[in-house]
Write a sequence for this structure.
């Protein structure tokens, strides 16, 4: 897929500021592979837009780490395990390196938030992951259950029972160590998590735009449905996206199918993760396949 040039990317940043977007999250792939990343960050910040970057840290140089810290960029670091053995099964032999980079970033004063992608291999380590992050004196952490698309292997997708166990371990440990936790793409978790330390947001599809490397605006960064394109202009793309009948339909609980239709949490959960439902059932309106209320697994 051809990526936006630096000039095109800068125009997108300008457009994002013009529509008064509050946040720009630069993800991947691996965004640190773009040589113009610092230029895009500075452009966004000078226009009043808060910036975050997702990275596996493997390509972070000391110069880039200093830049991210100085510019107060929110840095999300992938840590998919709390032990070297489990991490290696998922990410390879980089556990010590990633932890060293997290420490270096923190020592530089960077705002670091680790992210764990929960799967059938590492779900038993979620509590230990929270404990590990607390030991590094990090202010908050995030977890997201795997969405089986692209390079993500469906064979390691957790069962609903595994997801519930993983998040229950998280809530218990978060209370013990006093660490704030975010559960991304998991609104179903609000049906069984009661910890004041754990934040469970709704799906953000209708509140943000996921822009692919070539400028396409996708329904979600893990759903291969193109809605519009920022090359026509960010304002025009946002207006087209936010008025899209498909996008708006995902905000209507009456459109949900399966057990979601009669669920007491339908208006707050809205079916959970639509991308996960699409990947497993081929239907955006089916229940999140990880929701324990919609499955007996």
């Amino acid at each position: 897929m051809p990526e936006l040039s630096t000039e095109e990317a800068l125009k997108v940043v300008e457009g994002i500021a013009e529509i008064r977007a509050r946040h720009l999250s630069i993800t991947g792939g691996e965004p640190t592979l773009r040589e113009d990343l610092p230029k895009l960050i500075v452009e966004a910040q000078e226009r009043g837009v808060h910036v975050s970057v997702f990275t596996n840290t493997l390509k972070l140089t000391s110069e880039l780490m200093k830049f991210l810290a100085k510019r107060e960029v929110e840095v999300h670091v992938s840590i998919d395990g709390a032990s070297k053995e489990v991490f290696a099964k998922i990410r390879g032999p980089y556990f010590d390196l990633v932890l060293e980079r997290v420490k270096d970033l923190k020592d530089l004063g960077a705002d670091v938030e680790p992210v764990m992608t929960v799967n059938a291999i590492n779900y038993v380590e979620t509590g230990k992951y929270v404990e590990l992050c607390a030991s590094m004196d990090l202010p908050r952490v995030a977890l997201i259950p795997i969405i089986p698309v692209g390079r993500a292997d469906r064979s390691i997708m957790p069962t609903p029972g595994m997801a519930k166990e993983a998040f229950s371990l998280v809530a218990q440990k978060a209370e013990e160590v006093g660490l704030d936790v975010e559960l991304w793409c998991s609104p179903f978790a609000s049906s069984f998590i009661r910890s004041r330390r754990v934040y469970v947001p709704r799906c953000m599809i209708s509140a943000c735009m996921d822009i692919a490397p070539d400028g396409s605006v996708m329904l979600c960064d893990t759903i291969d449905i193109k809605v519009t394109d920022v090359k026509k202009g960010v304002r025009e793309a946002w207006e087209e996206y936010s008025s899209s009948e498909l996008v708006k339909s995902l905000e209507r609980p009456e459109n949900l199918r399966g057990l979601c239709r009669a669920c007491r949490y339908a208006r707050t959960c809205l079916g959970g993760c639509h991308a996960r439902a699409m990947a497993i059932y081929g239907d955006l309106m089916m229940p999140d396949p990880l929701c324990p209320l919609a499955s007996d697994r």
